[in-house]
Write a structure and sequence with these properties.
The strands form six sheets. Strands 2, 5, 6, 7 and 8 form a five-stranded antiparallel β-sheet that branches. The chain has a four-stranded antiparallel β-sheet with strand order 10-15-16-19, with helices on one face. A three-stranded mixed β-sheet has the order 1-3-4, covered by helices on one side. It has six helices and 19 strands. The protein folds into three domains: 54 residues, no CATH class; 167 residues, no CATH class; 131 residues, no CATH class. With 360 residues, the chain is α+β, with helices and mostly antiparallel strands.
Length: 360
Amino acid sequence: MLRLCRSSSDILYSSLSTFKLRAFHLGKRRCQRRHNSSGSSKPIKYTTIIKPKGLRPLRVISTLDPSRLQDSDFVDLSPKLQNPRSQLPSIVSVIPITQQTSSSPSRLRSLLYYAISGVGSRFPQNSHGFLYYHRDPQLPATSGAVRFRLTPDAHASSFSVGTDLMLPDGRSPWAVWLVTIANAVMYVGLKQLLLSDSLVTPELLEHCRHLGARSEVPNGLNQMYHYMLFTLEQPFILDLASSHSFAVVGPQRIERAKLRVTAVQRIGFSPRIFFPYSGQCMVRFERSLAPEHAGKRVAVIRVLEILTPIVSTNPTFTPGHKGGLFHMPTVGSLLVKGDRPIMINADGDSDIPRCLQLLM
């Protein structure tokens, strides 16, 4: 009797539909009849491989506490090569049973944006590592944020030798601000992990929720965070070729302002406002120590570091003449107007004084 053989490479899966199974066996019987009629005695080998559709691997994390990270918390946020315009990466947060009334762990999903103008929401290639909560101990609790630590491998032990994912400017780390997490539904998984890890308190999250709700730009809270000042002498980058937007968090509100100290206004010229220098420097606000400012809220701006060379953009511009703003900044100097430091009276009612009032 003719014996049918099937090679070991023939793979069947229990998930096949009834229709596919019937079609397979029908083809098998038809093949048998053709084989029997031919009178051949050679066994037939079936080499067809039916593969099930694989599920996309989940990015599952169980903690945002750097001291409790495990290898299983490793995630890859890189865009898929086969679909570079893929949807935003989602993170599944597994909340421990002890924090729930149910008998099984809660699984909550959060969507993540890279969110930079000109780049879009997709993360850069090789964005793999660990999400974690960061807070500078020198800043208020409202400054906390979730960051992403890039690591050389998938082991939690490599966290200490990794580096934070940076924004395209190379100076600011990618982050999801605590105020954003408290106000956006898309970050509910991160919020619950922060609570279960005891990294934040419910009272702090509620305070952050109120701060965000009172902001004029609730949908842009995370973008605002990268220009946020929490203390008076907190350093920030000043681009001399443009106005500098910044924001300040106070006890009950967020204030925003534009620092235009690098702009010069000229009467009878076009354009009327221009920036006589280009370059970047690290600066900070300071209280004025001048005797005449004792007991008053007056701030000056100190240059801490020259980050990129300061060059003149208009050779005809003479610093110090009428309408001029400042001499060429140098490290340790104050930006000056003529021969005097730029002074900002924080008791005024414009946007910059209101920001300084919160910082002072």
